[in-house]
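[job 4471] stage=fold_predict status=RUNNING
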Amino acid sequence: MLWATASAVALGFLVALEIIARRSTGQPGPLTTQVREVIFAPKPGPLYAGMALMMVVLTWRQRFIALGAAIGIDIVFVLVRWAIGAETPEGHFFGNGALWVILGCAVIAVTRRTGKERVLLLKGVGLGLLLVAGRKTGDSWLLITAKTRPEVLDPYLATADHALGNPSWVAGRLLQATGPVGTHLLDVVYAQLAVAAIVVALYQLRNVAAERRFPRHHLVRTFLVIGLLGPAIYMIFPVVGPIFAYGPGTSGTGGPEWAVADLWPHTPLSIGVPHPVPYDGITPRNCMPSLHTAWATTIFIHSRKGPPLLRAAGAFWLVATLCATLGFGYHYGVDLVAGVVFALTIEAAMRAFDRGWDRSGIQLVAYGTTVFAALLVSYRYLPVEMAEHPWVAGPLLLLAMASVIYGYVRTTRAWEPKAAPVRRPEPQPEPV
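[job 4471] inference complete, writing structure tokens
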């Protein structure tokens, strides 16, 4: 019943977003773009990642068959496109095979499976399709934010960021000093965040095929919920980032003509009275909160119970992601603080839902939500005061974030099952 309800809600949300996307942007929404990829050339990464998640419910023999079928179908599509001279976007020349295999498994589940085996296979298919749909939903949301929010609030965050010492300006200069090596490394880490998430998720779901059930809580669920709720905050607090609002822009959007001033990263920003500023209709307003920070924080949390190599990789990805978000000018420091609080609050809510809501879970989620709301209000209405009193506002921001971290660690440790003490055998009297 829970999975059926979740599926119905997800479908209703996708239909609503499809309608909103068409009306506000004139572009197709997530459902249309997903259906197109049954035939037209897709981006392969999300589809093969979704198929990898789906295959956790299959045996090793079935996995090899599914992978071989996906590759074979892709070869056929590539040959047909080559024969007819069809043009494809760069990097979109294969991937249909993975989607066909996922849909084929759904058909097999309905027609050839019964009982728990049918439910398990449908859960795997749903998990894979949700990952793909999550990517499409995010793309639609970003376009909606650009089209429906003509003004951005970057001056407010740039002013509030004085409380933290303008870390994006500092990180930007440090990254430029490292040369192409540091830039390329952080660019790979930032762009391949989903790959790190898939690695951790596959480790967590490694026993699904043997146990014939999913664990109660795993990374993919929190990852998807963060991606679902984050864009709603974008609509409330539209921000493009320092490289766009105070620099030349990047990735083909923005530009000096849209910037408030060409200051990032070499010229420190002076304190002034912030106000909304207009920006182009292409650049996503996707800074507040930093979802890359939120996702990297979640990866770090879920890697803690893995082997040493996975724990080290989770810590590295978190630190490198924080450096990349600031060094590339994609985010302000206050975005990262909000992103950490946002991630921990959602993770706490997901864990509390799984174990059953109790007083500790309700208090933790309520506290995280209150702190996150207080951060947004202070960024919007107290940025000048924060900038003028950095030795007060800065420690308060970090203390608020640290309090949520401490509350999360303290509460979730109490939720961990305690190992029962082993009873020591009582000494027996020696026989006479």
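[job 4471] summary: The CA atoms of residues 234 and 328 lie 20 Å apart.
[job 4471] exit 0
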